[in-house]
Each structure stands twice: as structure tokens, then as C-alpha cells.
# Entry
Amino acid sequence: MESTASSNIFVVEDNADDSFMLLKELERAHLEDHVMVIKNGKTALDYLLKTTSVPLVLFLDLRLPGLGGVEILREIRQVDRLQRMPVIIMTGSSDPQDLKDCNLLGVTAFLAKPVSLITFIKTVAHLFPSVSAAK
# Structure
């Protein structure tokens, strides 16, 4: 688990390359000091349920060791303080049921891997306008 004391962007991703790309784009937005990365679904859910703060955004892979992303979504959407937290799904899944489940659980965006750099930047820029300014 990589963390800082002021983490408010939460990344749940077990693929090192995908984490690296995401962290590089957040760095362009000068947000790298506010990121926590967890590589395991159960650890991520435990953290989200125990912390009193609400992350600005959750970047979530669907296929994770320990507990899958859809299960994490189901659990956090039952917690009042986490119901409106923006969630961006980044997944290699092409299962239409995953997209349906995620939409029913109120995700902000569903990005199919491999995510093009332009698509990723536009999605992150929607939440963090300084990404566009940092190009």
C-alpha cells in the first residue's frame, strides 16, 4: 500500500503498468501527493469502510485479487458517506454485465483497458481541471 497522510484520491489497481499510467497523469495535475494505491480488493474495501474521510475519487479495477470491483462497489454504495463518491472504473473486462452492474451502482465513468491516453486525460480532466492546464 502506497500512501500519504493527506490521501484523498484512492486507486485500487493490481496492474503495475496501469497504476503507473494513472499516477503519471495525476502527477501532471500536481495531485501525486494525494494518492493512495492499494492492489488488493479486500484491503481496499476494509480501508474505505474504516476511514472517516471520503476520497475525492476512487479509481477502481474490476478484476482484483481478494475481492472484485463490483463487490466493492456494492458494499460502498450501502454506506451513506460513500454513496456519492465519484468512481471511475478501469477494466479489461468486456462483459456487458459488468458495465450494466457498474452503471446501476452509479459509476462516474467506465473505461475499457487498454485506455487510450487521450480518453484517460479527458476523464481525469473532468474531475481535475488542472490536468488540462498542465499539458
Observations:
- The longest strand covers residues 87-91.
- The CA atoms of residues 41 and 67 lie 4 Å apart.
